[in-house]
Amino acid sequence: MSISGRLASLARTPLQRIFYPITLGLVFVLAGCATILTPPYVVRSNTTTALKGLGVSGVGVGSFSEPAVFENSCRGRGALGLPGGVSHTEYIRKALEGELKAAGIFKSNKPRVVLAGRVNKLEFSTGSGLTGGSWDIMLTLRSSKGGQMSASEHFEFESGMQASTACQQTADAYLTAVQNLIQKTVRSPGFKGLVQ
Q: Which of 10, 29, 131, 170 has its CA at 20 to 30 Å from residue 159's CA atom?
């Protein structure tokens, strides 16, 4: 006799006999659907150094627009989530803000210049080759003083064959992909033009 059959036989009423197997099935389905979290963003010292080298101050960060399409479900294991329940786009915005703060050039109240952004592309793969994965991110920044620039990051990592491992590796790799994106952005010649 199956587990659901045994539970149904323990039920005292016909209604309980119907709902016990359904409840058990839902428990098994929901157990496989968890949120897999990316670690909190950590500033990079070489990005901080690059920002300090710009010789600017009073830079604020405005809103960032979401990409037209982003699927955050990973191999049927659940959604890729972020600390505090923020979106993947907001994580990028907060990462830039964090790097500006670490460099001592961020200003939230009446900044001299505000950078707004649009995440044009945000995709991940957990099945490149046998165990490879990748993140692809494209960001466009616009300055309140005029001008814009774009930067992109293609980050490859080992994801793994098992869904649970591959999805956790993908969530963890988002941190590094965003760190790389922010570093490329602030080291780009176009960035200095946006914040001067």
A: 29
| Whole-angstrom distance, CA of residue 39 vs CA of residue 33 | 19
Angle, to 10 degrees, between the axis of helix 45-52 and the axis of helix 163-187?
20
Provide DSSP, 85-123.
G--HHHHHHHHHHHHHHHHT-B-SSS-SEEEEEEEEEEE
Range of the domain at 187: 34-195
Task: Evaluate whether 88 touches 67 at the Cβ level (below 8 Å).
Answer: no
| 182 and 165 co-located in one domain | yes
CA 87 – CA 78 distance, rounded (Å) = 15
Convert the pLDDT of each residue in 7-47 to its tens digit.
455 556 655 555 444 443 333 333 445 789 999 999 999 99
Same domain, 27 and 44: no
Domain count, the chain: 2
DSSP bridge partners of 106: 59
Are 154 and 143 within 8 A, CB to CB? Answer: no
Which token pair is 195?
A: 């914040």
Single-letter code of the amino acid located at 181: L
